[in-house]
Amino acid sequence: MTLTRRTFLSASAGLAMVPVFSGGRVGAAPLPRDADIVVIGAGAAGIAAARRIMAANRRVIVVEAASQIGGRCQTDTSTFDAPFDRGARWMHNPETNPMIKLARAAGLEITSAPSGQKIRIGRRYARAGETEEFLAALVRANRAIDEAARRSDVSCASVMPKEIGDWAGTAEFLLGANLAGKDLRDLSVGDKARALDRNTAIACRQGLGTLIAKLGEQVPVSLSTPAGRIVWSNRDASVETPAGKIAARAAVITVSTNVLAAGNIKFAPDIPKKTLEAASRLSLGSYDRIALQMPGNPLGLARDDIVIEKSDSTRTGLIFANIGGSSLCTIDVGGSFGRDLSAQGEKAMVAFAVEWLTKLFGSEAAAAVKKSSATRWNAAPFALGAISAAGPGAQSSRKVLTDPFGCIYLAGEATHETLWGTIDGAWESGERAAEAALRRIGALRDPEPEPRPLKQRRRSSASPIN
Ligand SMILES: Cc1cc2nc3c(=O)[nH]c(=O)nc-3n(C[C@H](O)[C@H](O)[C@H](O)COP(=O)(O)OP(=O)(O)OC[C@H]3O[C@@H](n4cnc5c(N)ncnc54)[C@H](O)[C@@H]3O)c2cc1C
Predict the structure, then answer these.
(1) CB of 412 sitting under 6 A from ligand 1
(2) Which of the residues 158, 297, 323, 381 has an alpha carbon 20 to 30 A from that of 74?
(3) Running DSSP on this structure, what letter comes out for residue 227?
(4) 416 in helix, strand or coil?
């Protein structure tokens, strides 16, 4: 049966061209010595912050460790016959998600939400009654998490209702590994309960990596320029890179919590202990994507179909098939299973995907694979993981992470209380941090806005959407 109502995916959850700076490479413009505000990282948060600073007519420079813009939004446009989003893929909540408007304005194509979401039980699809049973199990699980979050910040696993019976493994996959890259025992009820509904899964046909790269076209970014050390005070900051130092009146840091906690950027004086602790408590979950080119539609699925498995554990995946009508299919894995698998390398990941598809669809699937690729975000040196997710007791760390120290402001998906783990959360956090930095340097006169009330969650009791 195809889920037709709110579905398990949502259930579980005019500037002139600027020069490209290039870490001191010959032929590129040299790194500027100063700026009003320096931004560390050219992912969604960093690009949003820089655009906001430019809109206020202040000088900004973004230093980016990698050789391209995008961070955890990367689109591979050359390997397959369709763009392959290696990181963020879906834009949720179309009524409020700014990325959809930005994508349209950038001339990119927005797809409609996939119409088919199916549950595979062995070699067949779930029947209507089974699907209803599963949706009811998700509603129960979500409700138990919400209720527990009002009392204390325990693990999601500790409050899973017994009545979800043999759907427990599937619920664990969707609500934990698929939503946050963590098993439910490693996920805080508070973080899960506050996560804004991730209903509707809308993609950008050219890819979300393409989108961030386009949005960054007008932004002065110095690629391959890692910030190694930041000397900061209440007055100013100096960002040290292999290509030289940049002096600024404020800095916005957007690197992932794992990069921050790993100490890959040194601070003088040291970064406040509470900030570093908050980053560690919001460590990144594991979420990876295995891409298979399978001409001839051996899975017999429609364009943009989404399939999950009724599984007794998280040793499972989420299929997105025939992407945009192409022969590209992807399998997403996450949580501790996904972490162990990705640690074994790309070959093992592809082998798992093929074996798993064979179990569910027969051996034709394996024979049809013509090309493959897999992400390994935990090993990506400038990300070190996929999505920040609070462990039990750690939900309050999100607020701590947004507290500025001296003239340093942290941004990035992990600093968003309700949209953590999303591209729009990262974007909004970048704009917010930029505004705070602009206010500090006197470039914005309006008083700091009251903290916005958490957006109302719109989960109906029938909705399994997380
Ligand atoms: C596999 C996967 C699937 C996902 N799916 C979705 C989805 O469907 N929908 C959704 O909304 N979100 C999704 N996300 C989450 C989304 O990608 C992130 O929330 C978002 O991209 C984070 O943006 P950011 O700017 O906060 O961080 P990042 O994108 O990590 O940007 C930080 C930047 O800092 C750079 N950096 C690191 N160290 C240094 C240094 N020392 N000096 C200078 N620069 C440095 C990094 O290279 C990076 O470019 C997914 C993520 C993954 C990994």
Answers:
(1) yes
(2) 297
(3) -
(4) coil
Ligand 1 nearest atom to the CA of residue 227, by list position: 42
Peptide bond into 269 cis (omega under 30): yes
Which tokens hold the place of 125?
């699809």
Q: What is the mean pLDDT of the chain?
A: 91
- Residue 4 burial (10 A CB sphere; 0-12, 13-18, 19+): exposed
Rounded to two decimals, the pTM is 0.93
Q: Among 97, 255, 341, name the best residue to mutate to test ligand 1's pocket (greatest count of ligand atoms within 8 A of Cβ).
A: 255
Residue type, 322: N
Mean pLDDT (whole number) for 302-313:
94
The pLDDT of residue 343 is 98
Q: How far apart are CA 284 and CA 327, in angstroms?
A: 31
Q: 232: helix, coil or strand?
A: strand
**Ligand 1 contact via 221 beta carbon (within 6 Å):** no
CA-based nearest residue to 331, from 372, 390, 389, 379:
372
Alpha carbons 465 and 135: distance in angstroms, whole number: 9
Note the Cα 349 to chain centre separation in Å.
20
Q: What number of other Cβ atoms are within 10 A of residue 431's Cβ?
A: 18
> Checking DSSP bridges between strand 266-268 and strand 229-232, what pairing results, if any?
parallel
Average pLDDT over residues 360-382: 95
* Ligand 1 mutation pick, 91, 202, 423, max ligand atoms within 8 A of CB: 423
Instruction: Find out whether the beta carbon of 383 lies less than 6 Å from any atom of ligand 1.
Output: yes
The Å distance, Cα 425 to ligand 1 centre, comes to 11
CB contact at 8 A, 356 and 317: yes
Q: Is 84 in the pocket of ligand 1 (CB under 6 A)?
A: no
Contacts by 1-5 with C-beta closer than 8 Å and gap 24+?
1/118, 1/119, 1/125, 1/126, 1/127, 1/128, 1/130, 1/131, 2/115, 2/116, 2/117, 2/118, 3/117, 3/118, 3/119, 3/131, 3/135, 5/462
Kindly state the tokens that stand for 104.
């349209």
